Amino acid sequence: MSVDDQPSPEQQTGDFYEALLPILNQPPTRRTALKAAGAALGLAAFGKAISPLWSIPENVSTDEFLQQHYKELTDEDKRKVFERLEAETKELHGASVTISDPKPIPGVRYGYAINLSKCNGNGACMEACNKENNHHRGVDQSYIRVLEMSKGSMDMEEGNTTYDHTVPQDDKYYMPVQCQQCDNPPCVTVCPVEATWKEDDGIVVVDYNWCIGCRYCEAACPYHARRFNWEEPEIPSDEVNPDQGYLSNRIRPQGTMEKCHFCLHRTREGRLPACLEACPTGARMFGDLNDPDSDINWVLKNKRVFVLKEDLGTQPSFFYFFDS
């Protein structure tokens, strides 16, 4: 085809809208519509047709922009996506990584409990989370906040997360807060593109490549457990954790939401969450709520446990208790 035979921008835009028409009677999101149009037109034509309307960010490839939702990816699709992400990590961060996709273990439903009598606010859990989950090093990021609370009070609004004095303080106790992996998660309900959902083992996950960064989930979460990636992640190559899960600790792109996922790349392989292993006081307990002999069930049966903001009906799978 000669240059003279190339369709004009107006014709390309018309082709774009014509490709879009068959799905306009359905309830697609903007991203779903754009993906469908891209599939109908072909990537090259799609790129030209869309340019007068939207611009794909420079740091996002067309393949990534048109990638299907995680639940729609075939095994072959996943292989190609993981290879692309591994290559990008090598190029951008200088680290060789392996991205896996461990599935929920049939019949298992995870729960977490913290003994507030043992937690002394040392912050080792936050540090472990930062390293395990490949957080951006430009900020002091973690999926965990440890609130320093006045003894006798349960008012989380009065909790202090920026203390820098010696711990523990005699008149204080310490409450780590992270994603509560709710059975009725409001963050999932409000997501306009279904980029987040609850899996069979109770873990609420995020498809980072499908997330549009609207932050509705962050606003909906009553536990302040969601994090937004404001910047391109910066991690020294020798600090990148190479053992990565697609729905867990792979390096997340700028402009997307993220959260605690119970270290599913570890726990679905029979290991414990990194925060639990790092805790020097033994305050943390994790296990299968469906196993009557698990440590977590022993806690539920023998301790007076409570959940945060029970009145909201979120039904957390995260429990707290005191020894006395």
UniProtKB/TrEMBL annotation:
Looking up SUPFAM superfamilies in the UniProt record yields: 4Fe-4S ferredoxins (SSF54862)
**PROSITE patterns reported in the protein's UniProt record:** 4FE4S_FER_1, 4FE4S_FER_2, TAT
What superkingdom heads the lineage?
Bacteria
A molecular function (GO) held by this record is:
4 iron, 4 sulfur cluster binding
Could you tell me the keywords of this UniProt record? 4Fe-4S, Iron, Iron-sulfur, Metal-binding
Domain 4Fe-4S ferredoxin-type stretches: 202-231
Check the record and name the PANTHER family matching this protein: PROTEIN NRFC, PROTEIN NRFC HOMOLOG
Please identify the protein, giving its name as recorded: Tetrathionate reductase subunit B
